[in-house]
Amino acid sequence: MLNTEIWTPRILAVLRIVAALLFIEHATMKFFQFPAAIPGVPYPLATIMLVAGAIELITGALMAVGFYTRAAAFVAAGEMAAAYFMAHLSQSFWPAINMGEPAILFCFIFLYFSVAGGGAWSIDGIRRPIAATT
């Protein structure tokens, strides 16, 4: 039988790390056009895109290492909600059509981290071992 008390915080940490690295990738696409430029986005970037990239880079890095995970995730979730309503919803009501599915998924994954914390393998867990696993 699977011991969920052992595996739940570990799988939460894996999800946190992978989601944070994917979030950082969005920032590197904005700032460095790596691994590619964002399709359809003119350069130099508009101020709102620079702010979004800064939020993605900072909160992504914090979440990747699990430092102030709850606060970083809350800010990142808010950015993704704003991105969906500002950039995607105006194109169509349906997420599959307006290409907003990643923004919705990031928003709710980060909202979950803002409540659940970083799980295992986090700086938060080293600083407060009890709070990181509850």
UniProtKB/TrEMBL annotation:
Stretches that traverse the bilayer: 6-24, 45-65, 71-90, 102-123
* UniProt KW Membrane keyword: yes
InterPro entries to which the protein is assigned, alphabetical: DoxX (IPR032808), DoxX-like_oxidoreductase (IPR051907)
Q: Which keywords, in A-to-Z order, does the entry hold?
A: Cell membrane, Membrane, Transmembrane, Transmembrane helix
Record GO cellular component, one term: plasma membrane
The compartments listed are:
Cell membrane
Q: How does it sit in the membrane?
A: Multi-pass membrane protein
Instruction: Give the family per the record.
Output: Belongs to the DoxX family.
Which named protein is this? DoxX family protein
